[in-house]
Backbone:
């Protein structure tokens, strides 16, 4: 399951990045060549950058490429190292539930309830904010997978 999730998420991130590059190139072309900058591409690039950054963090967490300080882990025996990893993963899951899922879910709900729209694209802002609970869910899936299959992740 992890491999298919990695492929889907990786392909989606590549697609978002390609769309963002095209939007920025069009923005530069329309600003300097046509002398009429497009406001839509600027806002689109901004929202795509938000999605790429937050979903990219979820992808990095799944690949064990996130930022970490492992001074303590190197000094522990394998059994205690496994316990430490499980404890860290439980803390990450707790953070994802409270901040990304609940907090992000509340932000999505409030934006939906107020009917907020973006200025140029007129896209509902709850769609933009939906990346928070989505990435929280992805990180939780990755961390549960790591807890259930610790031998794959221990160095």
Residues:
């Amino acid at each position: 399951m992890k491999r298919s999730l990695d492929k889907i998420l990786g392909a989606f991130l590549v697609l978002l990045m390609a769309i963002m590059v095209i939007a920025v190139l069009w923005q530069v072309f329309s600003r300097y060549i046509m002398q009429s900058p497009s406001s839509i591409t600027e806002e689109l690039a901004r929202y795509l950058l938000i999605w790429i950054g937050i979903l990219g963090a979820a992808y990095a967490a799944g690949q064990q490429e996130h930022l970490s300080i492992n001074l303590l882990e190197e000094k522990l025996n394998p059994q205690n190292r496994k316990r430490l990893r499980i404890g860290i993963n439980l803390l990450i899951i707790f953070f994802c539930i409270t901040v990304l899922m609940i907090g992000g879910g509340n932000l999505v709900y409030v934006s939906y309830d107020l009917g907020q729209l973006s200025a140029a694209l007129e896209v509902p802002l709850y769609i933009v904010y939906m990346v928070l609970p989505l990435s929280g869910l992805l990180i939780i899936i990755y961390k549960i997978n790591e807890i259930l299959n610790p031998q794959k992740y221990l160095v």
